[in-house]
Specification:
- The protein folds into 2 domains: 161 residues, 3-Layer(aba) Sandwich (Rossmann fold), CATH 3.40.50.2000; 31 residues, no CATH class.
- Helices cover 42% and strands 11% of the residues.
- The protein has a 6-stranded parallel beta sheet with strand order 3-2-1-4-5-6, sandwiched between helices.
Length: 210
């Protein structure tokens, strides 16, 4: 299910650069839970000299923390804010550097955006395995990737067409489903029948048809 843009969200002053960028936009996020910038600092260093526009969201950390840990003024191709709605940002992105949280990865694929994933906590190991299996991006296998690993990963997902093609296939498959309606149908079927709803039975069928 894809969230609506929050009504109280105000776009940053540089947002028009993202919307109209002639360079590939790379979104980078630490995620929404962890109050640190350990993925963002090497990402900013990795992409400082690349011909991309880097949009960084710091989540629980203040954007000034990124500047402090970076050790000076951020590169000219970096734009940083605490929060941009994922779905909106990803509609303009060509690659997503992520710790591999469920929401960010799902919304990236809903937009056909290939991934460079670095995270091994919570659900992220399983998500990394699915990224590798489906070919929609690269999983770096660590929570502390080097700048070189990130730079190589971003270059690959931007230049090797197989990653974007795989992400595009999943985008198209996801677009065929109405998650809210199908989820409600399945919950109603479960409530009426009191038995497990199996995948083989299909989705999207009203209770009256069960």
């Amino acid at each position: 299910m894809r969230p609506d843009v929050p009504l109280d969200w105000n776009s940053p002053s540089w947002w028009s650069e993202v919307v109209g960028s002639a360079r590939p936009v790379v979104l980078a996020s630490q995620g929404s839970i962890r109050p640190d910038v350990k993925l963002l600092v090497p990402t900013v260093r990795a992409l400082a000299e690349e011909n991309v526009l880097v949009v960084v969201t710091t989540g629980q950390s203040d954007p000034d923390e990124l500047t402090r840990h970076f050790g000076g003024e951020l590169p000219a191709n970096v734009r940083v804010t605490r929060f941009v709605p994922y779905d909106l940002a990803l509609s303009h992105a060509r690659a997503f550097v992520t710790n591999g949280g469920y929401t960010g990865v799902t919304l990236a694929l809903a937009n056909g955006v290939p991934l460079v994933q670095a995270g091994t906590t919570e659900e992220k190991v399983e998500i990394a395995a699915r990224i590798r299996y489906s070919g929609v991006g690269l999983a770096l296998g660590t929570t502390r990737p080097t700048s070189r690993a990130i730079a190589d990963g971003v270059r690959r997902v931007l230049t090797e067409p197989g990653f974007a093609a795989a992400a595009g296939r999943l985008r198209d498959e996801m677009a065929e489903h109405d998650a809210g309606r199908e989820g409600a149908d399945l919950m109603e079927r479960l409530a009426v029948t009191g038995r497990p709803v199996l995948h083989s039975e299909g989705v999207g069928v009203g209770v009256a048809e069960s």
